[in-house]
User: What shape does this take?
Amino acid sequence: MPRLALLARLLLPAALTVTAATALSLAALRGAGLNGTPPPNATIIKKLIDDLTANWIWLIGTGAGLVLIILAGLFMVGSRSAPDWLFKVIGGVLLILVVIPTALA
Assistant: This one.
């Protein structure tokens, strides 16, 4: 039997099981009273999440700024490995901001 047919025979029951489990869990959540309307104090939780998000943005911006300052210092003192580190930082930032979100979308 070709590998593709064998893979399809194995994955089809798994996909159907996951789909059925998801549908049942959504029905259970609706039965428990989750109907899409926010609870009375949802604005407090939303403010907390917004504050935590703003703190993470500040922390990441500060860290990136410090890394760039250190790299600028390495360039100023004539370090031979400074360009290598600069390209590593740029590559890491591109991975985090472009490649990983694209792969997860």
Notes: Residues 1-36 form one domain. The mean pLDDT is 83. Residues 42-76 form the longest helix (35 residues).
